Amino acid sequence: xxxxxxxxxxxxxxxxxxxxxxxxxxxxxxxxxxxxxxxxxxxxxxxxxxxxxxxxxxxxxxxxxxxxxxxxxxxxxxxxxxxxxxxxxxxxxxxxxxxxxxxxxxxxxxxxxxxxxxxxxxxxxxxxxxxxxxxxxxxxxxxxxxxxxxxxxxxxxxxxxxxxxxxxxxxxxxxxxxxxxxxxxxxxxxxxxxxxxxxxxxxxxxxxxxxxxxxxxxxxxxxxxxxxxxxxxxxxxxxxxxxxxxxxxxxxxxxxxxx
Length: 259
Ligand SMILES: C[S@@+](CC[C@H](N)C(=O)[O-])C[C@H]1O[C@@H](n2cnc3c(N)ncnc32)[C@H](O)[C@@H]1O
Hints:
alpha/beta; Rossmann fold; 7-stranded mixed sheet; two-stranded antiparallel sheet; 9 helices; 11 strands; globular; binds S-adenosylmethionine
């Protein structure tokens, strides 16, 4: 996809992640790459509790919206045969490439829009997104693209904010214990501060889209903060421990492409 074909929000989000990479993620990337245990989201919830990952040994994996590619690194270290990280932000891919060279993992890092990657069809067993395409891309584009990239029986696993947290999130500042926006028509969200565009389909629409795209839903796990959770150094600005101890702040979805 040429630069002029990129949707407006993809360019806005690329600018956002270029700034964020310098301010925050580049400095944390190596630590994340070296985590021994796979964990998810702002509360570092261990995969052993969430249980959404299939066995990746010998499998071909694509990470859609890979950022600094620490999820890709985790999966390669757990025996995936081939791992391709797709990202739109050159600065984030530079961080990923630096670490890939340092640790010699052999990840393939591709600069592309995760809504239309240009990668060959039916070439992966697992498509994964941890706050990548799962929130930054239009679901009506990236979910069909994930389906296209997967082989029959391949799996799609993704992490995103909970719909309830988005409904309780004001345009500025921290999540509230009161609804802030309607669910009717929920999909594109243009956040005004530090402009960025996210997407959030509520569960019913997302389930129908997954099914229409050729997936069957295997699981959806809602994630809460534990009793001893502490506010996240970066996302604590938006999400609080107190809120997430009462309501799910995140969702992990697992689906399988029908054969
Ligand atoms: C929160 S990071 C998540 C990735 C990874 N889990 C991490 O934390 O490093 C979001 C990433 O999505 C990427 N992204 C946003 N829009 C994208 C798009 N249309 N195509 C591919 N990547 C995209 C951004 O460049 C950013 O690196």
